[in-house]
Amino acid sequence: MQIGIQSGYVLLSTALAIPNDGKILSIDYGLGNYQLYFPIIEKAGMAHKIGYNRSPISLVTEDEKYHGAFDFIYVDAHKTICSASHTTLIDLVRIGGVIVYDKIFLSDTLGTLRIVSDEDASGTRYYGDPVLLFNEIVASDPRVEICQVPVGIGVTLCLRLR
Ligand SMILES: C[S@@+](CC[C@H](N)C(=O)[O-])C[C@H]1O[C@@H](n2cnc3c(N)ncnc32)[C@H](O)[C@@H]1O
User: Fold this and answer.
1) Short-list 96, 71, 85, 77, CA closest to 14
2) What would the mean pLDDT of 10-14 be, rounded to a whole number?
């Protein structure tokens, strides 16, 4: 499953990387650039791997048919969603599966990208506070083993243990 599609760039990259019979449920409550990326996904021969759901993630996590249904979930939505959704997303990934949260070191004062730090108090704490809350939630969740990878603007890997 992939949450936050926007340009379709990560969606296409993931579709290209999985086996031919692999499936991705893509979730985004906005249409994003669907008209731009859908023809590219078709041209790349990846359309058969992808399903589209235009709901907010909260509606998807409530649906019991998705519980334990996914090997891998990639999350690139607003960081308030990451902190609010982690406890339900973990039910959707199977034991031994992985959730990847992208852009997890990001602090953003609406235009200025920087790494979250304790000195981040000035300006709009648009991303900083949600990221710090998210870190606390995943670090204290006994169901997951986590690893923060300093690539790009930060990725947190969560392996579901139980
Ligand atoms: C940073 S963009 C994703 C970029 C994407 N990874 C790419 O390759 O272009 C974040 C996306 O998350 C979507 N989004 C944010 N909160 C959401 C929510 N609660 N439910 C569903 N989609 C959400 C937004 O509509 C937006 O398209």
Assistant:
1) 71
2) 96
